[in-house]
Amino acid sequence: MAEEAGTDADDACAWAERLGWAFGLIAEDPAARGAALVHLAEAQRKVTDAVDRSREMWRLTQPLGADEQYREPAFRQALQRQWQAQKRSLPDGVWNSPVGGDLATWPGLPYALLFLEWEARYPLEWTLHAKAWGTKESLIRKVARAAQEEAIKAKLTDLVELVVHRAYRCKDREYVRVARAVDSADLRGRLDRAVDSDSPWARCHAGYVLWLLDRPDLPNTRRVWQAWVAGGAASLL
């Protein structure tokens, strides 16, 4: 079934045709973001309709038994329409990525980064229209493992900087993985400036990331983060 969906095999043009509109979600112009949100709402409505249809066909064909059910043309068609609808929406459209291989060459990578940048820049809009903490966590872990071409490294460095300057949100701690993957003088300079800023969130979060960059063997666990926030980091050493 995954092969029928074709998500991993699609080229850049196919991804742009399905999700090119989504770059409006990170536009500075509120009108452009509004138009993209309208598009997203319609895409999500189509997903809901397609999922409902698949469930209905599953119920109607269930008496055939599992093997025959998945060979039933009407059920297969309903599933195919569901996959096609999901590939044109968010967060569904960025769920599947290549198993193994070089993520840097995956045509879906710009859209995975887009989804993370949307959450970083406009967290309230992201939460209202496409909240998916598990997807956020999974994508952060995946992009941290991507081969670090300069363009990707620059985008990930920007993402870390964006995240440390705001109030902490669910799964933000995962960005330590990204910071460790793209560690550089540029990133550390940005984090140093955040530590010296007037924002208590930036001072706390950027300080934590810098502290762990200097301690690559220290695990980025919830206990370590909580000790840092509580001011007890010294006890962990």
Architecture overview:
- By secondary structure, this protein is mainly alpha-helical.
- It has 13 helices and no strands.
- The longest helix has 32 residues, at 30-61.
- It starts with a helix and ends in an 8-residue tail after the last helix.
- Mean pLDDT is 91; it is low at 1-8.
Q: Biggest β-sheet: count, sense, barrel?
A: none
Oligomeric organization of the protein chains: single chain
What's the gyration radius in Å?
21 Å
Mean pLDDT: 91
Alpha-beta content class: mainly alpha
Q: State the share of residues found in helices, binned by percent.
A: 55-70%
Gross morphology is elongated
Low-confidence stretches: 1-8
**H/E series, N to C?**
HHHHHHHHHHHHH
Q: Distance between the terminal alpha carbons, to the nearest Å? A: 49 Å
